Amino acid sequence: MTALSSVGIVAKHRLREAAPHLANITIWLRDRGLRAVFETNTAALCESCEWPIRDKDRLVTEVDMVLVLGGDGTLLGMADRIAQAGLSIPILGINFGSLGFLTEVTLPELYPSLEAAVSGHAAVEERLMLRSTTVRNGALLGAHIGLNDVVITKTARSRLIDLSVWVGHEFLTRVKGDGLIIATPTGSTAYNLAAGGPIVEPSVGGLLITPIAPHTLTNRPIVIPSSSPIRVRPLIEERDEVYVTFDGQDGYQLQAGDEITVREAETRLRLVRPSTRSYFQVLREKLKWGER
Question: Is residue 292 part of a domain?
């Protein structure tokens, strides 16, 4: 990592457990000649903190690294904002949640991890991200960049939905079921894992296509090269309610004729991993492999 001069601090919304640590973090940074910048809701948790306050979108444009206190959802939200801004600043996640594949650093490891990051000794992994576009009536409806996944799914009261899927220019399959997940290797341990998809090591250059509760046993998850764009066209009838979501952070309802294209994004997330734990050690710890 290059030398840092400022660090953005973002805590999970209303995470009271983080409040006692915020003032100490700012003192620690100040003692090393570094400037702290607080996200708006995070600043509300720390009454004694007198550092600059910015909303999330502005914060990422003013700092050299983002420190996230919370869980994977909080980190995802910041990662997506960094990518949407066209930036590549690194992000360090401290786990205040229960699982945390991305925010793997524990609270006792907070200051050693910060020291490794600001001194330039921490490892930084580049993680593949997704760029998604939705076209409606020939016009662009929305564009998103995300780290984990794009999910097309029905509502709880809807019947099975029907999705046609292409990889590149070749038709792949029709999926009838509760929906479809298109995930990165990083996202393989999120919704994809819960839906029965495979775990893929983050350095693998692939995209995952995983049906959600498919109606036919012949529909199975598949991993394709990340260079191949994926197109999905829902076959929507009048009473169907179909939604697309991006990293669980944003989304909207789809209409008949909409088409979603998902491809590898030009930008990568730079994830700070100061821990000496390997990816497989993290899997063993989080998933309790071999313990039951």
Answer: no
The C-alpha angle with vertex 186 and arms to 182 and 191, in degrees rounded to 5, equals: 50
* Whether residue 280 sits in one domain with residue 256: no
Domain CATH for 229: 2.60.200.30
Residues contacting residue 32 through CB under 8 Å, at least 6 positions apart: 118
In the chain, how many domains are there?
Answer: 2
* Per annotation, catalytic residue among 31, 55, 64, 72: 72
Write the CATH number for 72.
Answer: 3.40.50.10330
Q: What confidence category does residue 18 fall into, taking pLDDT thresholds of 50, 70 and 90?
A: confident
Q: Which amino acid is at 6?
A: S
| pLDDT at site 3 | 75
Quickly state the pLDDT bin for 180 (edges 50, 70, 90): very high
Pairing of the two strands 206-212 and 222-225: antiparallel
Q: Are 163 and 231 in contact (CB under 8 A)?
A: no
Q: Do 102 and 160 belong together in one domain?
A: no
**Tens digits of residue pLDDT in 50-67:** 789 999 999 999 999 999
Token look-up 């000496």 returns 276
Range of the domain at 223: 129-267
Q: Is 1 among the domain residues?
A: no
**Residues belonging to the chain:** 292
Please report which confidence band the pLDDT of residue 14 belongs to, taking 50, 70 and 90 as the band edges. confident
Decide if pLDDT at 96 tops 70.
yes
DSSP state of 12: -
CA distance 288 to 228: 34
Q: How far apart are CA 134 and CA 125, in angstroms?
A: 29
**104 vs 106: CA distance, rounded Å:** 6
User: Catalytic: 80?
Assistant: no
Global pTM reads 0.93
